[in-house]
Specification:
By secondary structure, the protein is α+β, with helices and mostly antiparallel strands. 33% of the residues lie in helices and 28% in strands.
Length: 251
């Protein structure tokens, strides 16, 4: 379980194995790059007990190291986008290379969702079905697009969003870090207003806690520093068959 708070932007994070799985294969990290810039990342590993945790931990470590080494104050949006794409490529190579070298790691991979918030400008990158939500007093919306079979079916009109929530193959993803020599990431940009929040989470949370519940806990729940714990408790009370991880950032 991880918790933290920065001096300018407020951040909190929590990760838990859930109620069923003996091992936590999620990983997350939060770092303040300077007084106005914060970096958050969440990964959900896959590949079984021998390697899912290795993939997520390696992805978080390499991603944070690369951004830490590359980021400079005053970077243009174009440079930030290039930096994030390059970091994802490097992370993919690192995980794929480890999987190729060691039999125990064969087939491992991980999702990745990250946010770089510089002042009130947020740049979000994702691969897989870990999500970023934008939460404010005006409401909540999913910023990212799941790279999953069910999302493809929803986009085609084969499933409604409600049907997708209970579809048997909802955990099958179409894109992941480390499973192929190259990977494509998505980038999103948004402007944050004062007291807006970003929530990054794995599907262990988003599969069990709906958007209105997230909105209520983030905006109206007491003791903001306990918000991640309250969201985790909701998932745990519903059986939490998967690992649960979330990072909350408040401008």
């Amino acid at each position: 379980m991880l918790k933290g708070e920065s001096s300018i932007m407020q951040t909190w994070s929590i990760t838990d194995p859930g109620c069923v799985r003996p091992q936590n294969q999620d990983a997350c990290s939060v770092e303040q790059l300077d007084e106005n810039c914060t970096l958050c990342v969440v990964c959900d590993g896959m590949g079984g007990a021998k390697s899912g945790n290795v993939a997520s931990a390696l992805a978080v470590e390499v991603f944070m190291q690369e951004i830490r080494a590359s980021w400079k104050n005053g970077m243009s949006q174009e440079d930030v986008d290039h930096m994030l794409r390059s970091a994802v490529k490097l992370v993919n190579f690192a995980v794929y290379d480890q999987a190729a070298q060691f039999v125990d790691f064969a087939g491992m991979g991980t999702t990745l969702v990250a946010a770089l918030v510089d002042g009130k400008t947020a740049t979000i990158v994702n691969v897989g079905d870990s999500r970023a939500y934008h939460v404010s007093a005006e409401g909540i919306r999913v910023v990212t697009q799941d790279h999953s079979i069910v999302q493809m079916m929803v986009d085609r009109g084969d499933l409604t969003p409600e049907e997708a929530k209970v579809y048997p193959g909802k955990n099958l993803i179409t894109r992941a870090i480390g499973t192929d020599p190259a990977v494509e990431c998505d980038l999103f940009h948004l402007m944050l207003e004062r007291e807006d929040c970003l929530l990054l989470c794995t599907d262990g949370l988003s599969n069990l806690v709906d958007e209105q519940e997230i909105l209520f806990e983030v905006v109206y729940g007491e003791q903001r520093e306990e918000c991640c714990k309250r969201l985790l408790d909701i998932a745990l009370n519903r059986g939490a068959p998967d690992n649960v991880t979330c990072v909350l950032l408040r401008v």
